[in-house]
Amino acid sequence: MLKIATFNINGVRSRLPALLEWLDREAPDIACLQELKAPDAAFPIDEIRAAGYGAIWHGQVSWNGVAILAKGMEPIESRRGLPGDTGDTHSRYVEAAAHGVLVGCLYLPNGNPQPGPKFDYKLAWFERLIDYAARLHDSGHPVVLAGDFNVVPTDEDIYNPKSWLKDALLQPESRECYRRLLDQGWLDSLRARHPAERIYTFWDYFRQHWQKNSGLRIDHLLLNPQMAPHLKDAGVDRWVRDRPHASDHAPTWISVDLKVQKQPATQKAAADKPAAKKAAAKKTAAKTPAARPRRAKPAG
DNA sequence: ATGCCTTGAACATCAAGA
User: Fold this and answer.
1) Nearest-5° angle of CA A29, CA A100, CA A4?
2) pTM
3) CA of A36 to C1' of B10 (A)
4) Which of A84, A128, A136, A196 is least surrounded by Cβ atoms within 10 Å, i.e. has the fewest?
5) Rounded Cα–Cα distance for residues A4 and A101 (Å)
6) Where do the Endonuclease/exonuclease/phosphatase domain residues begin and end (predicted)?
7) Between the CA of A15 and the C1' of B16, what is the distance in angstroms?
8) Which strand ranges, in their side-by-side order, compose the sheet holding A143-148?
9) Which residue is nearest to nucleotide B18 (CA to C1')?
């Protein structure tokens, strides 16, 4: 079983004790981090290695910054930065292979205030993500696209949409982009695993929102068709948010079982005969869970 | 409409987060 997590850490240096405590206690095999808020040279690689993790990171002074950690191995970097705009200097995307999975770690722009140039940047970045994600989706590898998407997908993903109506995270344009991304065939794993539950991954620092559980679901792990059938469980490590000086996000995770189920030799031999092959294919199709995400209901 | 709270930059107050 493989545990894959995403965690907007909101400052990797100021939150290093929290990160190490979480890694020690939850031991994710792969951890995507966002909002490092540190330049490359200040990334605490020594402490992370001492905790048993290899890492790649794409830092930036003061803001943004993303990293991928892998337990007991060095992630093999396959990309840093989204294609489509060479003038974009924000560190918001990094990608690596680890433990047999291709992992895209992203920090989508917040987009506030909207309307305005920051919202335009958010939507433009989203379009680049949608374009690139299509390639990932069709890569043939098991892929997870994980991170802080800065989108509340539906009104079921926030404590009270009325308070946030003007916020960039709830705008129809933001939600439309997210839906278009899912419609490529990605599975929203948290929602798939818990179809009818309130799940939050972020609680802002204002108005005692954590204490009141006034949260938003904005950290997502999307799975392509090579990955989705292996999903076993998903959740949020809420205890991390309850610690003193916590990030405003909590780590969000899935577990997947990628082990190939070996067929008994006799069954395998039988499967080579055309008639049996056809029956086996039919059986497989019937057993495969719906990989397509359900369409979000129109808001309102 | 704005602040609330928190970080990182630089050292009093910003910019930015969501």
Assistant:
1) 30
2) 0.87
3) 19
4) A196
5) 10
6) 5-249
7) 18
8) A76-80, A93-98, A101-107, A143-148, A219-223, A187-188
9) A110
Give binding residues of A as ranges. Answer: 8, 35, 148, 150, 248-249
Q: For A6-37, what is each residue's pLDDT tens digit? A: 999 999 999 999 999 999 999 999 999 999 99
- Examine residue A295 and state whether it is found in any structural domain, yes or no: no
**Residue A118 sits in a domain of what CATH number?**
3.60.10.10
Q: Which nucleotide is nearest to A247 (CA to C1')?
A: B6
Place of tokens 């330049």: A39
A274 within some domain: no
**Residue A166, in any domain of the structure:** yes
For residues A175-187, give the mean pLDDT.
98
Give the rounded distance of the alpha carbon of A121 from its chain centre. 20
A143 Cβ contact partners less than 8 Å away, ≥ 6 residues apart? A101, A102, A103, A104, A136, A137, A223, A224, A226, A227
* Structural domain count, chain A: 1
Three-state DSSP string of A133-193: HHHHHCCCCCEEEEEECCCCCCHHHECCHHHHCCCHHHCHHHHHHHHHHHCCCCEEHHHHH
Angle of helix A172-182 versus helix A117-137 axis, rounded to 10: 10
- What amino acid positions of A are annotated as catalytic residues? 107, 148, 249
In angstroms, the CA A97 to CA A141 distance is 10
Per the structure, the complete domain to which residue A15 belongs is given by 2-256
